[in-house]
Amino acid sequence: MRIVQKFGGTSMGGVARIRETAAIVRREHERGHQLAVVVSAMAGETNRLLALAHEMDEYASPEETDVLLATGEQCSAALLAIELQRLGLKARSFTGAQAGLLTNNSHGRARIESIDPGHIVAALDDGCIAVITGFQGVDTAGRISTLGRGGSDTSAVALAIALKADACDIYTDVDGIYTTDPRIVPEARKIERISYEEMLEFASLGAKVLQTRSVGLAMKYRMPIHLRSSFHDVRGSMVCEEDEDMEKACVTGVAYNRNEAKITLQGIPDRPGIASGVFAPVSDADINVDVIVQNISEHGLTDITFTVSREDYPRTMEIMHQHCADMNAKGVAGSDDVAKVSIIGVGMRSHAGVAQTMFRTLADGGINIEMITTSEIKVTVVISERDVDKAIRLLHQAFELDAEQA
Ligand code: ASP
Ligand code: MG
Fold first, then answer.
1. Which of 115, 192, 261, 301 sits in a 20 to 30 Å window from 236, CA-based?
2. Tens of pLDDT along 274-329?
3. Which atom of ligand 1 has the smallest separation from the CA of 149?
4. Helix (H, G, I), strand (E, B) or coil at 80
5. Conformational region of residue 130, where left means phi above 0, alpha means psi within -120 to 50, and beta covers everything else
6. CA 381–ligand 1 middle distance (angstroms)
């Protein structure tokens, strides 16, 4: 089989860890697989390099910042190749450019345009283990680019697709994706198979195991991802195409994100164009708006409440205060002590009353719901941050997620 393996920063965090990672690579090599190994920078290295750039100049250009950040992965790829060679294996490292990974020129968050894996294929056919720097590529002008934080996952999936790999194994310090955060609910269970769509919801809600873009890419090209532990050689979670079994359970997991803030614009005249008037300056500032609720108007006036991530809260409040007068709004209010809790599952499409079970469970627990939003496979509520742990525990129980899988 041809396998793409990806190792994150913890697996590359120093000489000792790199030796352990090399042992995993050797194990899979001895099983007879062709291996392309994508690596992240050593844990903490990307942050260290970013801080250096900022120390030099707060406004360091994105192009040079990319050149700097790309060294993190180059360092760990070379070290892993050195260790593999020390073990007597044939190995060599490749930068993103050498691996033929071409991106657009949005430095710092570049998108992959194409991959020409010729050199990698040649190395693999030659019996060589190819070690490839994650997170980076080269733009059409020949400049080094990076794919955004956590981008090595996306490099790995994209390479797996380009190499027509049989599997994309992503090794992390957890052994898969769980029905919820085991630190909050010790009874949380590892999900054996999860659909791309569900994983996309988990990832975009802030489950840090996979970069959201990597899941979108895997879904588009139907590349299964095996999320597995770098500590134990056991099956982790398969992120793959939906099947009938997945629909049997109505809820697959409970996800949450504490990194939320909400803002309310009070008493704005309810007429065509208000939503655009409120959100245009926010999107111009490159701020992502998430949940939005507009109230029914009374005497021609309405309220609009929306959420943004907590780091964008001060700037969004500033923008709203600036635009309050233009929109003839009566006032702006906000708080940054809210959080999002979601139940996710493709089974929701075929089970009725799932949202109602969620609402009743929270009500019985005395938890106030501030906002609600739904999709075909997800119900999200915005609640006070202090209720998050309790909400998760109650929901996990209500949907019998700690029970044995049917
Ligand atoms: N080293 C990069 C980061 O820390 C990319 C990655 O680890 O996936 O964001
Ligand atoms: Mg990562």
1. 115
2. 888 889 999 999 899 999 998 888 889 999 999 999 999 999 999 999 988 888 88
3. 9
4. helix
5. beta
6. 30
Given pLDDT bands bounded at 50, 70 and 90, which one contains residue 406?
A: very low
Name the residue type at position 210.
Answer: L
- DSSP secondary structure of 351-394: -SSHHHHHHHHHHHTTPPP-EEEEETTEEEEEEEGGGHHHHHHH
pLDDT, position 204: 87
Average pLDDT, whole number, for the chain? 94
Amino acid at position 356, single letter: Q
H or E segment and range at residue 121 = helix 118-125
> 46: CA distance to ligand 1 center in Å?
6
Question: Which atom of ligand 1 approaches the CA of 155 most closely?
Answer: 8
In this predicted structure, what is the pLDDT of residue 281? Answer: 92
Which residue segments constitute the domains of the chain, with CATH numbers given? 2-173 (3.40.1160.10), 254-405 (3.30.2130.10)
Query: In terms of Cα–Cα distance, which of 257, 292, 290 is closest to 371?
Result: 292
